[in-house]
Design a protein that fits this description.
The protein is of the alpha/beta class. It contains twelve helices and twelve strands. Helix 4 packs parallel to helix 11 (302-326). The structure holds nicotinamide-adenine-dinucleotide.
Length: 349
């Protein structure tokens, strides 16, 4: 563990096995310096235990950074359950997972992630109160996507202001990859602001619906990297900024909600050299975790969510300005600020 390439001084890495239900899961608590660790639970059919461990170590570190940049009183953690979400789910499995979360006595709060939905979390809630992302209950926060999308839209304006001298998106062309929950709501904001949209998705129904209500032009999934646009907004997959796509992009900015957009951190430097201003993914997409944090606080308040989101976008602006002034990649600047915030909070904790 301590020699693992993705180990980053994690406070705790907890492996759980439940023979009766077949649950195999790992909960990684990266940092509780800023508050209890929070991050979703992913269910995935990993090919090896090492692949699972790499994922949970990296994802939990990413949550520490995301929560620190969002300015919320939460640390970073993540859970992964080993299994195929299409065939291996059962209420008993999620009850066993709930007992695992409960055993950490509030050091870690869970929620939905890939392969896990609201109904699974409702089962987890039977065993532990350290769970968020529910659609019932006193402080239920429901679907985080609209808040994430609002942050993405505001982040696109921050990028536009620095690249074009104005954040007015009227007449600007935005290429949007993925028009699911986050991408779809983002398109609505962009269309209302007068932007011209070029969209792609592998889901034809979603494409048709978004195009109908926003007037967006549809292109094939692989063509989105070649279109003439001002800003590219990735809202589907990770690792889409790589050596193959980099050379094709003609945009001046990248600002979208997808997690882990850069295939490797060094891509940030290549984007900088190309004159493309990149809004670091875990900063611009922090709206969802802000919404979840409101639920964890026990009293959901829309005003608090809106105010915290505004501060996050100010932080994004500061990251972009510092990167531009010091000729550094934006993702390096964001990482440094996140690490400093966590380190500053640790002694007080
Ligand atoms: P979603 O499943 O609702 O939407 C994703 C969309 O991407 C789907 O419509 C899907 O068909 C499309 N897609 C998949 N493969 C594609 C491809 N090859 N080309 C084009 N489109 C493709 O998911 P979401 O909740 O909107 O999340 C989108 C991204 O944002 C994910 O990376 C997620 O991790 C990240 N994110 C989401 C939230 C949130 O609040 N939902 C918060 C933070 C980050």
């Amino acid at each position: 563990m301590f020699d693992h390439p993705s180990f980053d001084g994690h406070e705790g890495v907890h492996a759980f096995h439940d023979a009766a239900t077949g649950l195999k899961c790992v909960i990684a608590v990266h940092s509780t310096a800023l508050g209890p660790a929070a991050g979703g639970c992913r269910m995935w059919n990993y090919t090896t235990g090492d692949a699972l461990l790499t994922d949970v170590l990296r994802l939990s570190q990413g949550m520490s950074y995301k929560n620190a940049m969002a300015g919320i009183p939460l640390g970073g953690g993540k859970a992964v359950i080993w299994g195929d979400p299409k065939s291996a789910k059962s209420p008993d499995l999620f009850r066993a997972f709930g007992r695992a979360v409960e055993s950490l006595q509030g050091r870690y709060y869970t929620a939905e992630d890939v392969g896990v939905d609201v109904s699974d979390m409702a089962v987890v809630r039977q065993q532990t109160r350290f769970v968020a992302g529910l659609d019932e209950g006193a402080a239920a926060s429901g679907d985080p996507s609209p808040v994430t999308a609002k942050g993405v839209f505001l982040g696109i304006r921050e990028v536009a202001r620095r690249q074009f001298g104005t954040d007015d998106l009227n007449g600007r062309t935005i290429a949007v990859q993925g028009v699911g929950s986050v991408g779809g709501y983002t398109c609505d904001h962009l269309a209302a602001a007068g932007a011209k949209l070029i969209i792609t998705d592998i889901d034809h129904e979603a494409l048709a619906a978004v195009s109908k209500r926003t007037g967006a032009t549809i292109v094939a999934p692989n063509d989105i990297y070649d279109v003439e646009a001002d800003i590219f907004s990735p809202n589907a997959l990770g690792a889409i900024i790589n050596e193959k796509t980099l050379v094709r992009l003609k945009v001046k900015g990248i600002a979208g909600g997808a997690n882990n957009q850069l295939v490797v951190p060094e891509m940030g430097e290549f984007l900088r050299r190309k004159g493309i201003l990149y809004a670091p993914d875990y900063v611009i997409n922090g709206g969802g975790i802000i919404n979840v944090a409101a639920e964890i606080s026990g009293t959901y308040s829309r005003e608090w969510v809106e105010g915290t989101l505004s501060r996050l976008i100010e932080t994004l602006g500061e990251v972009l300005d510092e990167a531009l002034q010091s000729n550094q990649p934006t993702n390096y600047v964001a990482d440094r600020i996140a690490r400093a915030r966590i380190a500053a909070a640790r002694p007080a904790r």
